[in-house]
Amino acid sequence: MPAPTSSPAGKEGRKLSNFLCFAVYSANLAFGRAYKPILDALGLTYTQYIAIVALSEEDDQTVGMLGEKLFLESNTLTPILKKLESVGFITRHRDPADERQVRVSLTTAGRDLLETDPSSELIAATGLGEDFPVVQQSVTRLRDNLLRAPVEPAKS
């Protein structure tokens, strides 16, 4: 039996609704729309919010470590962290053992923000109920598989 392809063959397979990548992409956009009013009320962007969540897992992370967790380059992450520092949610400092490294930690205000659990409303909004953890794990596995897969362009 041949391996499954990214989309079924033929005209039906070329329908946008048959592309898993589009389903994931459009779900990401829908999450962004759902999060926007919640995070606007907190004065945060989604990327700022997930940076705070990632920092809550471990204090005193380097910018590089945090960037790896968030799939962001340091040149994208640094302005986000500067903004979070300016509003008092994080602290940044140079690593005394290696001045090239910047370390980041949540402040009390950053921890207090997470105590309000802004994302809790969205779990119910997904309509997944008990399937929520299964879907989350499946999407994580999909992401990890794609990051490991050596994808080569088709040769003409």
Automatic annotation (TrEMBL):
Pfam families: Staph_reg_Sar_Rot. One of its GO terms (biological process) is response to stress. GO terms for cellular component: cytoplasm. GO terms for molecular function: DNA binding; DNA-binding transcription factor activity. InterPro entries: HTH_MarR-typ (IPR000835), MarR/SlyA-like (IPR039422), Transc_reg_Sar_Rot_HTH (IPR055166), WH-like_DNA-bd_sf (IPR036388), WH_DNA-bd_sf (IPR036390). It is found in: Cytoplasm. Keywords: Cytoplasm, DNA-binding, Transcription, Transcription regulation. Transmembrane segments: none annotated. Residues 17-148 form the HTH marR-type domain. Its main location: cytoplasm. It comes from the Bacteria. This is DNA-binding MarR family transcriptional regulator. It comes from Rhizobium leguminosarum. The lineage of its organism: Bacteria, Pseudomonadati, Pseudomonadota, Alphaproteobacteria, Hyphomicrobiales.
